[in-house]
Write a structure and sequence with these properties.
single chain; mainly beta; OB fold (Dihydrolipoamide Acetyltransferase, E2P); five-stranded mixed β-barrel; 5 strands; globular
């Protein structure tokens, strides 16, 4: 019997999920999410905040700037989009 190939799709439970803040929603069905993490400086032991921006797919154009969202890793949807919106955790104060 042939075994499952190593390139088989990963189960949804093993895909990366991140929480961040929407910094841009100017595109159609796309958002930019800023994700912050804290790291310890190797020499001075001070806690530093590092940030990275990801483009995510927002099918309903439901997000606004400032919303806290959860995104999940997925197949490439375009040249820079590899994440998909799961849910809006909290809305921005308007």
């Amino acid at each position: 019997m042939p075994e499952a190939s190593p390139k088989a799709a990963t189960p949804r439970s093993q895909r990366k999920v991140r929480k961040g803040v929407v910094v841009s929603n100017g595109m159609d069905q796309s958002i930019v999410v800023r994700i912050e993490r804290t790291v310890m400086h190797p020499l001075y032991k001070k806690v530093i905040r590092r940030a990275k921006k990801f483009m995510a797919h927002d099918a309903e154009n439901a997000c606004n700037v400032g919303d806290v969202v959860r995104i999940m890793e997925c197949r490439p949807l375009s040249r820079r989009k590899r994440w998909r919106l799961i849910e809006i955790v909290s809305r921005a104060a308007t």
